[in-house]
Specification:
single chain; 267 residues; mainly alpha; Serine Threonine Protein Phosphatase 5, Tetratricopeptide repeat; two-stranded antiparallel ribbon; 2 strands; 59% helix; elongated
Amino acid sequence: MGSHVDLRSVLNKFIQNMTSYWLKSLLLLFCCAYFSACAPTGLEVLSETDEKQYRLAHDYKLQGRTEDALSAFHRVIDARRDSPESHLEAGNIYLGELADPVRAIYHFDRYLQYKPQSPRAPQVRQLIETAQKEFARQLPAQPYKGGLQRMDLVEVLKQENESLKQDLMAVQVQLQDMVKSARKVPSPSAVVLSHSRTVTAASAPVATYTDAASVPRKHTVQSGDTLTTISKRYYGTSSRWIDIFQANRDRLRNENALRVGQEIRIP
């Protein structure tokens, strides 16, 4: 009787141990499946600075291959949902190497969106101010000089707009004078002795600008040329310099990058 009880006790313990083993196994499998499903992809686990393209971009930068470095940083930005370091690097290249403050401001702003509390955030905000001043310096009036410590872009653009309005009004006055002179018809009383002059259309004021229809498509830069003087030559106003600059962005890094002998488009 005693041996029968002992055998039953051993069987009960064996069943309990097996049940516990299978429960633990099932629990372990469930945990593995859960964390596998919730784990991010390999691209997310890998930090931005460990990205192959990010390291490659830094190698290009050390080699002085600015364009290649910028392209690699852009590939990191396109591949990741968050890439603050690549935005910061791209902003530095646009500001320091390519003289493109507008794109630099965009990338610096993106960095601050991702890392507003970063230790480098104050430095990045200063870079944005520097880029804003550089943008203002590139405007024709060059409103930011020397002692100015703060730049108001809105006010600068207002002044530029007023300058454009004045140029437009001057052209309109010239056109009105030309129309009035062309409509004048010589009267019989206008014909006098041989020493008198007959008023004809040929004596009408000559416009100081070239008709837009006759504007050539290209211009070869001469010594002393600037975008404003070229605009004055072809359009009769210096305000069209921005149109010439925009038409030659693939050739000019900024409005002061003209080279003697260079051929530019006249839109």
